[in-house]
Amino acid sequence: MDVRFVLEYQPVAATQNWHAECEVKREKPIPPKLHRRIPITSWQKENKMKFQFKAVALLAAGLLSANTAQANLISDGSFETPVVGSGSYTLVATGSSFGSGNPWTVVGAPGNVAPISGLYTWGGFGFPAQDGAQWLDLTGGTNTATGVEQTVSGLSAGTVYNLSFWVGNMVDPNGLFGTTSSVEVFVDGVSQGTFTNSGGAGTSTLDWQQFNLGFTASGSTATIDFINRDNQSDYSNGLDNVVLTAAGTPPPNAVPEPSTLLLLGAGLAGLGLWGRKRMVRS
Ligand SMILES: [Ca+2]
Ligand SMILES: [Ca+2]
Asked: Residue 79 falls within a domain, yes or no?
């Protein structure tokens, strides 16, 4: 015999318990004696309001997290413009600017830096970008203490910001590319430290390492510098994927989507249940 069960919601009087509308019954035939109510625990009654509030809070948190995850205050932190030829690079001299939106300016010792294709190879060594198709070689063609600067606006004085960036290193003890890559970072002219990547031994591919630092904004703008600190016999010092965000937002490369979506999903699911219960009651 084909006996099917259906879960059914029916309107109930306002004075009735909000759980009580949910009934399970046989679809056909419908012997009244088989109707039964699902027992409701006192815990569920007490936590009804808590659950509704939590659903709204989760939804708000999910939306907030999704928005702030994208707020990189640096313009073209991935050095994707100007677009250089595939496998090639271009040199930009001290005092000149490049990039899209709010451009980078080449600063420091007279010399140059090189926006470079991730497909560039030399002598059997490969130089893939950490992010996108290009990166920036701070040694350029001069290997001087030259670098790039960008002044970011829209900051809030007293707020802590997180600066994330990746340094690329090639280990080539007997060749042109040295063994380490060091970048000194300045915020408003004050050194925040020198960050060194020594990784990549045993490979002929550029090794990328992420660094993070925090600083408190002193006003609505901040001038950020990245300066080459490799010696002049070292022909490679990579910089890519520079991200500046207000502290407390997810790390730029942590792929926050799954947890964010989970949170958002939980909030939506909660709201859906809440809305359905409200609709049934009215
Ligand atoms: Ca890039
Ligand atoms: Ca180097």
From this structure: no
Q: Tell me: do 123 and 171 sit in the same domain.
A: yes
Same domain, 108 and 242: yes
HSE-up of 96 (CA within 13 Å, CB side)? 14
Please give the distance, rounded to the nearest whole angstrom, from the Cα atom of residue 135 to the centre of ligand 1: 4
Structure tokens of 201?
């031994």
Residue 5's domain comprises 1-44
d(CA 242, ligand 1 centre) in Å: 9
Rounded to 5°, angle at Cα 108 from 103 and 113 = 60
Q: CA-to-CA distance for 115 and 82, rounded, in angstroms?
A: 8
**pTM for this predicted structure:** 0.67
Instruction: Please give the Cα distance from 113 to 117 (Å, whole number).
Output: 13
Question: 188-212, pLDDT tens digit by residue?
Answer: 999 999 999 999 999 999 999 999 9
Q: DSSP letter for 251, please.
A: P
Return the SS3 of 83. Answer: coil
